[in-house]
Write a structure and sequence with these properties.
Structural class: alpha/beta
Largest sheet: 7 strands, mixed
Radius of gyration: 20 Å
Number of strands: 18
Distance between the termini: 19 Å
Strand content: 25-35%
Order of helices and strands: EEEHEEEEHEEEHHEHEHEHEHEHEHEHE
C-alpha cells in the first residue's frame, strides 16, 4: 500500500510518500480502508522530536475514518462494509483507571499514529473496540476531523471544567482545530464566548460560528480586553492549550472562582502562578488529557444530529502531507486539515 512515512525525526523533508507492506490484523482487530485522516499538532511534534514515537519507519495519523474491509476472528460488533471513525486511545483495559472508566488516564495506553502506525496510509489496523460506526449523515472527512479535537474540547469544557449555561468562556486560538471545537461546544452549552485569533479573517470566521467577542492577540493584550469587556470581572473558564506564551495572560483573565483548563503546550510547557492570588480568588487549575471512547460516542452523536459541525479548512491528497504540516506550522489554517488517499469521500 501507499503511505507517508518518516525513517528519522526532523523537518517536513523527512516525510516520504512510499510503498510499504500491507498491515495484518490480529483476531481482535479490524482493517480499515482509510478515506480521511486529519492532521494534528501532535503529528508535527512526533515528526520533529517526541521520544515516545514508535515503530520506525513511522506512519502518523490518529484521526481516522474509513470503511472496514476485514475483521478478525473474535470481532462481532463491527462488520465488513461498515463506515467507522476510530477512537485514538488504546488503553490496557485492566488497570484501576480503565476499570473506573478513566481509560484516558491509563499509564499503559498507546495512541493510534503515535505509538502505532496510523492513518497517513491507504489502510490501517485498530482494535475493534475503537471503532464507532457512522451513519450516512456524517461524511468520513467530517468524522475524521473530530476525534482528537472535539473529544479533547468536550472533556476539557464539559467533563473537567463543568461548563454551565451563562458562563463566560475564553477560547484561545479559535482558528485551531481544538479551538474551533471548543467554541462550538461552549456555545452549545449556553456560554457567552470570547475568542482570540491571529488574524482578522480568523476572527470573522469565529464570529460567524457564534463568538460573542473576538480579539486579535497580535494587535492587543487579550487579558486587558477581557477585563474591559467584563467590567473587570474576568471570565469563568479559560480554555488554554497554548502554554507558556499565553499562561500569565490566561490566569489574569480569570474571575473569582474561575477555572482554567489546559490540554496542551504548543508554545512552551512551563508556567508560574501567584499562589496568593490563586487562593484569594479561589481559582481552579485543571489538567485535561484527551477523553474516553464513551465521550467520543457522545460527540459523534451530537455531530450526526447536527448540533456540532466539524470545521475543515481543506482536504489534501495523502501525498501532500508535508504541505499540510507546513500550513499548520505557519498557522494558516482555520479548523482541521484532512488528508485523503482516495479520490472521493
Amino acid at each position: 500500500m501507499k503511505a507517508v512515512v518518516f525513517h528519522a525525526q526532523g523537518g517536513v523533508d523527512k516525510l516520504r510518500y512510499e510503498e510499504v507492506p500491507d498491515p495484518v490484523i490480529s483476531a481482535s482487530e479490524i482493517l480499515v480502508k482509510v478515506y480521511a485522516c486529519a492532521v494534528n499538532h501532535l503529528d508535527i511534534r512526533a515528526r520533529r522530536d517526541r521520544p515516545e514515537v514508535q515503530p520506525f519507519p513511522h506512519i502518523l495519523g490518529s484521526d481516522i475514518a474509513g470503511e472496514v474491509v476485514e475483521i478478525g476472528a473474535e470481532v462481532h460488533k463491527v462488520a465488513v462494509g461498515d463506515s467507522v471513525v476510530l477512537s485514538p486511545c488504546i488503553p490496557c483495559g485492566e488497570c484501576v483507571d480503565c476499570l473506573n472508566g478513566d481509560e484516558n488516564l491509563c499509564d499503559s495506553q498507546i495512541l493510534l499514529g503515535f505509538q502505532t502506525n496510523g492513518g497517513y496510509a491507504q489502510y490501517v489496523t485498530a482494535p475493534a473496540e475503537n471503532a464507532i460506526i457512522l451513519s450516512s449523515r456524517l461524511s468520513c472527512r467530517e468524522a475524521a476531523a473530530m476525534p482528537m479535537t472535539y473529544l479533547t474540547a468536550w472533556h476539557m469544557l464539559v467533563t473537567r471544567a463543568g461548563i454551565r449555561p451563562g458562563d463566560d468562556v475564553l477560547i484561545l486560538s479559535a482558528g485551531s482545530g481544538v479551538g474551533s471545537a471548543g467554541l462550538q461546544i461552549a456555545k452549545l452549552c449556553g456560554a457567552r464566548v470570547f475568542v482570540t485569533a491571529s488574524t482578522d479573517e480568523k476572527l470573522e470566521r469565529a464570529r460567524q460560528m457564534g463568538a460573542d467577542f473576538a480579539i486579535n492577540y497580535n494587535a492587543a493584550d487579550f487579558s486587558e480586553i477581557i477585563r474591559e469587556e467584563t467590567a473587570d470581572r474576568g471570565v469563568d473558564v479559560v480554555f488554554e492549550h497554548v502554554g507558556t506564551e499565553t499562561w500569565d495572560k490566561s490566569i489574569a483573565c480569570l474571575a473569582n472562582k474561575g477555572r482554567l483548563v489546559s490540554c496542551g503546550v504548543t508554545a512552551g510547557n512551563m508556567g508560574t502562578i501567584d499562589i496568593r492570588k490563586m487562593y484569594q480568588k479561589e481559582l481552579t487549575l485543571l489538567g485535561s488529557a484527551l477523553g474516553t471512547t464513551s465521550e467520543l460516542r457522545t460527540v459523534m452523536r451530537l455531530a450526526e444530529q447536527g448540533d456540532l459541525s466539524p470545521i475543515i479548512d481543506r482536504v489534501l491528497p495523502l501525498h501532500q502531507a508535508a504541505e499540510a504540516h507546513r500550513i499548520m506550522e505557519a498557522r494558516k489554517n482555520f479548523g482541521k486539515i484532512c488528508l485523503s488517499p482516495v479520490d472521493k469521500l
